[in-house]
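hiii, so i know i said id send this last week but things got crazy w the move. better late than never?? heres the sequnce for the chain we talked about at the cafe, plus the structure i predicted for it. fair warning i was half asleep when i ran it
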Amino acid sequence: MTGVPDFWLRGGGRAFLLLPLSFLFRLVASGRRLAYRLRLLRSHRLPVPVLVVGNIFVGGTGKTPLVLWLARFLAGRGMRPGIITRGYGGRASNWPQPVPADGDPFLLGDEPVLLARRSGCPVMAGPDRVQAARSLLELHGCDVIVSDDGLQHYALQRDLEIVVIDAARGLGNGHVIPAGPLREPRRRLKSVDVLVANGGPSSLTGYYFTLRLTRAVRLTAPAGSQPLSAFSGKQVHVVTGIGNPDRFFAALARFGIQVIPHPFADHHPFSHRDIVFDDALPVLMTEKDAVKCEGFADERHWSVPAETILTEATERVLKARVQGVLQSR
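okay and structure toks below
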């Protein structure tokens, strides 16, 4: 399973039949962006730089690891970065919501809680990015805002746009919704500042990063971690609620793990029955999924953290672009 319809990646008859609707979606998306550029719709400029990490491909492309890298880089320069994110899947009745490291992922969303834990930065979740960013400035005095997603949220002006694509899936069949997986036409990529691929080199860009998996961390007592090589040759249940589960399954299989896949929809609200099976086999999951499963996990359940590895060229261009924005503001 890929997390998106097969014809979104390869085309075919269904995609062809949906092209008229895609044409209308494309007109609406392009017209909306033009309305902001012509100031027919109001956009807001904050008193601090805004860095957007987004995509044009529906679903997960791996933005969160790059957001965390940016937050660490900015903090290392003595800045006070804050992160805004939509809070997708969160059930809070009022937004925006501050996200503590021990926040409830069912209330606030899984990605916001993961960002708060891993970044050590203030995180504010809410669908209105302008309101979320202003709340961060008021509560924490942040001097730079990093937006996790929000490329299409043109009500918030930005100083830098970084777009992440999946190296394996690229732009799919190249069509916009519903005939394809794109939120905006392909030509939108020409106007972004940096295009980065997740997973390896891409024909679309020379900049990329990879995610290194090395260990698994037990979710409950007895606490501890093991190298992934310890699971080599063993059957293991792998539970995912991410945008591209195949990438995670394949990464674990490279360790010789016999993966029993259990893919769920992105941001799936996990329950006990989703992660407990009628055997004693280990159960592995991503960090994003783990934040929702800690309350009902047992000693069989393990989280697999990922380390972001940028190529030298990618790190160099990102640092240069960010530093350029900070100096200009």
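btw The CA atoms of residues 68 and 272 lie 29 Å apart. thought thatd interest u
miss u guys!!
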